[in-house]
Amino acid sequence: MAQIQIMIRNLLLISNSTNAGEDYLAWPRTFIKEFLSKFGVHKVLFIPYAGVNLTPASVEKSFDLYEDRVKKIFKEMGFVLHSIHREPNPVIAVNEAESIVIGGGNTFHLALMMQEYGIMEPIRRKVLRGTPFVGWSAGANVACPTMKTTNDMPICEPPSFNCLKLIPFQINPHYLDANPAGHAGETREQRIQEFLSVNRGTTVVGLREGCLLNVEGDAMQLSGNRSLRVFRHGMDAQEFQENENLDFLLK
Amino acid sequence: MAQIQIMIRNLLLISNSTNAGEDYLAWPRTFIKEFLSKFGVHKVLFIPYAGVNLTPASVEKSFDLYEDRVKKIFKEMGFVLHSIHREPNPVIAVNEAESIVIGGGNTFHLALMMQEYGIMEPIRRKVLRGTPFVGWSAGANVACPTMKTTNDMPICEPPSFNCLKLIPFQINPHYLDANPAGHAGETREQRIQEFLSVNRGTTVVGLREGCLLNVEGDAMQLSGNRSLRVFRHGMDAQEFQENENLDFLLK
């Protein structure tokens, strides 16, 4: 008898916290509220490790400010948020979390600290047993098998580029179609083609700003007012709209 | 008696191969020709490892095409160029090189292969004994102490982010002042500020497209039609023009 394996996972993977000219976390707010409410979440464990420079004072102080900033918004949505950087034992905090939210910033610093505190595998286990997970920008990057499609500067050196592998494909958040006029550096598409040249079996999803992916089990849906762009080695990139079936990307 | 140590090094560190709308290597051509000629160079050892996707066929084939492309231009300038990827023993090739030129592309792949082939330290030794060195884009990145200020996507995982350390500061090539309109991702300056938050003692030089640094011993000069931007932790960024003294950055 064939075994049918269904992934238990509830993910909200958000391209960016903030659209140009809008308030912090303004556009994804209703999505986050609806998603967490659906699972009866009251308490949120926040991972601030990507937010290294909200103040020049110190990285630790930056985490404090990051927590304050996000806590306020989550309180308005009806959730109690506290940050893992205040926990004496981060692994226990993960294991006891009702939901996990990873904020954006620098993916290298985020992955480094997640690995140093030994929470990569505990978060993976927890989320694949159903604990709701929200990540934006760097937080969406670390939901992927590796951090190899981040846009961030490698400001520090994590022991490994491996990440949570909550999904089988790579997200490129803040996906951007063109360079500023007159700039000759690689476009985002060229960077992703470089990635595919040395990672030929991997699929990359370019997730434009103002867009998110909602994964529940083996089903995935795009929300937002722009299409997403799917890249595979040796194939033309393909665009998918909000109403199209994306479940194939989870296979 | 105090010892006076003078670094022997002759470097041409170029932000970008090509300005928007121009031919490949068009703008830095006269600078490269003048620089290599000054030291009586005839033969150039080319490092193509950053060029991973000049063809989708294979990375090896991409190096072949990269060599062809650069060889043609160097021939027009009067130099004989051959690529290290054709050499049976890359370390011997480095030790016997008359000059070393590192092309742009993906810095992670470049650093990975330089480390795998064990040529990082041999190049450093060779160049610090006076062998002329030219690097553009990723090639300028690896001249720095680390590759932590590259703009490239981390498509593969080098054993270490440490690089050639031919200069004591970090270059950010293709330095860019603004994002495309409507894009909310981090600006380049914000990315560099993130770097400084966790690397407080390091100086970062934003080198705009169409600009290069010429280092000879303990003297450094900017060429190009734009200023460079110097970043240090806790200080306002400073702009320096072509005619200003930059030797302090080498101290």
Number of strands of chain A: 11
Termini gap of chain A:
21 Å
Q: Structural class of the helix and strand makeup of chain A?
A: alpha/beta
Biggest sheet of chain A, open or closed, and with what strands and sense?
7 strands, mixed
Total helices of chain A: the number is: 7
Structural domains of chain A: how many: 1
Note the overall shape of chain A: globular
Q: pLDDT under 50 segments of chain A (min length 5)?
A: none
- What is the CATH first-level class name of chain A? Alpha Beta
Task: Provide the CATH superfamily of chain A.
Answer: Class I glutamine amidotransferase (GATase) domain
The CATH architecture of chain A can be named as 3-Layer(aba) Sandwich
Q: Which pair has the most extensive contact? A: A-B, 49 and 49 residues
Succession of helices and strands of chain A: EHEHEHEHHEHEHEEEEE
Spatial order of the strands forming the largest sheet of chain A? 3-2-4-5-1-8-9
Verbal overview:
Two copies of one chain form a homodimer. Chain A is of the alpha/beta class and 251 residues long. Chain A is 27% helix and 20% strand. In chain A, strand 6, helix 7 and strand 7 form a beta-alpha-beta unit. Chain A is globular. The first copy, chain A, starts with 9 loop residues before the first strand and ends in an 11-residue tail after the last strand. The mean pLDDT of chain A is 96.
